[in-house]
Design goal:
Layout: H1 12-26, H2 38-45, H3 49-61, E1 65-68, E2 72-75, E3 80-83, H4 90-96, E4 101-111, H5 115-121, E5 129-138, E6 141-151, H6 160-163, H7 167-175, E7 179-190, H8 193-199, E8 206-216, E9 221-230, E10 234-237
Parallel strand pairs: 3-10
Antiparallel strand pairs: 1-2, 4-5, 5-6, 6-9, 7-8, 8-9
Helix pairs in contact: 1-3, 2-3
Length: about 240
């Protein structure tokens, strides 16, 4: 590594920060790469471990690096910035980012709806719903765990094969239903044991819990989706205009 300039007015810890950031930006350090230990960095830069620790701590606080207890310090994954405007499926969103969407099906069944689902979808007592639990993948990396409820009468022939592709695309192109709008809520949460197991997280790590209610163009409810997104992978962005 390039030695720091001890005659520079810039603090040594800042120079190390900038050097590590430059390596991340250039691709020399990639997401998931482990950094050399504090001792090794101190020897390479010929500075104190305390100075190295300060630089690393600052980069951790900026979410460019993260620490794993007993393992080391790693380069963080870049977060996907998701706009709150526009109704898209996970598969459509990943393809627009140049990533290959995928699913890992955990659970797929026809079940009797709960009272809440009967009320939400306006179902009759003998109507059934699909309950679909799956892990959403981006280029084989787990991004979210998703549980979806859809009335069976809307898609009578739904299968695991259909679910391996974009459901929204299938519904609109093959079934002829037109999706209109959705209502979505986002909450900060801590990863449960089940989240940690499927999303490669530690229990208690920050996650985003998202509930989406999707409606057809005629206003009738189509699906209810409850998702847990990795907090280290996702952030949401929206434009806000001042009310006049």
């Amino acid at each position: 590594m390039k030695l720091v300039n001890k005659k520079s007015p810039l603090p040594l810890y800042y120079q190390i920060e900038e050097h590590i950031k430059a390596m991340i930006d250039s691709g020399d350090l990639k997401p998931g790469d482990v950094l050399p230990s504090e001792r090794e960095l101190a020897e390479q830069f010929t500075i104190s471990r305390m100075t190295v620790r300060q630089a690393i701590t600052n980069l951790v606080n900026k979410n460019l690096l993260y620490r794993k207890k007993g393992s080391g310090t790693y380069v963080s994954q870049h977060k996907f910035e998701q706009s709150l405007h526009g109704l898209t499926s996970f598969s459509e969103d990943m393809r627009r980012r140049g990533l290959e969407p995928g699913n890992k099906l955990i659970h797929f069944e026809l079940s009797s709806p709960t009272d809440d689902l009967i009320h939400h979808f306006g179902l009759k007592g003998d109507d059934l719903v699909y309950k679909i639990k799956r892990i959403r993948l981006a280029s084989n990396e787990p991004m979210a765990m998703e549980t979806t409820y859809i009335p069976v009468k809307l898609i009578p022939g739904l299968s695991q094969e259909i679910l391996s592709h974009s459901l929204y695309q299938y519904v609109e192109e093959e079934i002829g239903l037109k999706l209109g709008h959705a209502s979505q809520s986002i909450e900060a949460a801590a990863a449960t044991e089940d989240d940690a197991k499927h999303l490669k997280l530690d229990r208690g790590e920050p996650v985003l819990f998202i509930q989406r209610e999707t409606f057809l163009e005629d206003g009738s409810p189509f699906e209810l989706v409850k998702s847990t997104y990795r907090g280290d992978k996702y952030k949401y962005k929206m434009n806000i205009e001042r009310l006049r």
